[in-house]
Amino acid sequence: MIVTLKKARTIVRKALEKGRALELKPLSVVVLDAGGHVVAFEREDGASAGRFAIAHGKAYGAVMLGMAGTAQMKRAEDQAYFMNAVNGVFGGQVVPVPGGVLLRNPKGIVLGAVGVTGDSSDNDAIAAMAGIEAAGMTGEI
Amino acid sequence: MIVTLKKARTIVRKALEKGRALELKPLSVVVLDAGGHVVAFEREDGASAGRFAIAHGKAYGAVMLGMAGTAQMKRAEDQAYFMNAVNGVFGGQVVPVPGGVLLRNPKGIVLGAVGVTGDSSDNDAIAAMAGIEAAGMTGEI
Amino acid sequence: MIVTLKKARTIVRKALEKGRALELKPLSVVVLDAGGHVVAFEREDGASAGRFAIAHGKAYGAVMLGMAGTAQMKRAEDQAYFMNAVNGVFGGQVVPVPGGVLLRNPKGIVLGAVGVTGDSSDNDAIAAMAGIEAAGMTGEI
Amino acid sequence: MIVTLKKARTIVRKALEKGRALELKPLSVVVLDAGGHVVAFEREDGASAGRFAIAHGKAYGAVMLGMAGTAQMKRAEDQAYFMNAVNGVFGGQVVPVPGGVLLRNPKGIVLGAVGVTGDSSDNDAIAAMAGIEAAGMTGEI
């Protein structure tokens, strides 16, 4: 299973719909493939200018480390110097908080990741999961 | 007039449809707003991994310089050191070739830009223009 | 409403006048537009050499995140690794303290930001607000 | 003689007035001090988003090298690898074309530089010189 554009579109649209249903702030959603490369992105009207970078940072760290946002955050809290160092080797592109959701196949292989930003990190993750489920995939928050 | 997500979606979809109609190679399309920030992006299945950066670079230079891809390419051919220097001040993010299409309002104010990559630069620009026209906007190749 | 040069000049001049009226240290004031791009900047005689970067950093983070300096500082205090990561994705350009004042329209859309530096962060914010009010705009400290 | 804020303001305003008198495209003007640090900057309405970086690059190279834009351009044309290398050591911040005007005192000591961008490089330099003369200073194009 790979993250096709068709699947990525479903993820983006359904994550945004979830945000509207929950009356969240304007969201931005990115979908990355197994190499950490962008497949699709959308930023809702009213979202602040820098949201691509933040959504991307949440998803990028998930793919590069094979570790979802919640686990990254725990690591950042337990061992800040480790996540700082990780950001050194990845050019500062990793944002280690929830809203970066890892996509795995049933065998645990990383297929890509989804990054959502705009509301609280926990709500961002809820929206991401709605999109992932609509696409028939499994997410790790 | 601003580049809403609705307009950006239309640009992306119609540019990709044009690519399919013309049997171009897999395309990637980005839409940036007036500040050079990403509103929407899609990469077709089969496109190479780095296409976000190239699409973005075509559109980003157009917004930052207020100069479309064709004019940037001419400048790069006439005065290579100038475009090199421009790329220095913009962190290497400018790709000065056609396929970076500038969006202006009737008064000439930059509203954003569209970047398409995947086929020849000229075909990329044709696909971009199809998307822009479908969204009721005016593009400068 | 956009941040015209005329409005930006008013903001800069009136912020500096406020600094003189309050006998603050020499101030530097930058005004950014909705895309985070500089519209105007002035540095008073006697201010230290690096003040452009600091003023810019205060305002840039506000625009990119849609979050004023006070809220950024709280986030940096609560979750230092998050603001570190944000600075990674924005190339180290974010200075998360008061003195970065967000400009919004009545619907909450970000119009730009003002960054003031030179005195205490709180006094910087007071000077910024004086300029913003003189320009008939609304600031979020 | 140093580049006070008062002088810098005069340079910026008179350069912009010259641009209006000559019906040039919207201009952006930066004034740097003897250390290459920004004293003042203004970007006219309608100028493209990235004009601060270009104006800055023109002036910054002039101060750092003690060489005005015309001389830098000649060097770039004669010895491209040298200007590339210069840009390496200065972090890509040098834009070696006219419109970067050096400010010297009567003994030849560098006092700062003015960077203008928006129209042709030669017209940019004309506007810069108008500002510099209005401030009672001497410019080297």
TrEMBL record, chains A, B, C, D:
A Pfam family it matches: HbpS-like
Name listed for the protein in its UniProt record: Uncharacterized conserved protein GlcG, DUF336 family
Organism, scientific name: Sulfitobacter brevis
InterPro entries linked: GlcG_carb_metab_protein, PduO/GlcC-like, PduO/GlcC-like_sf
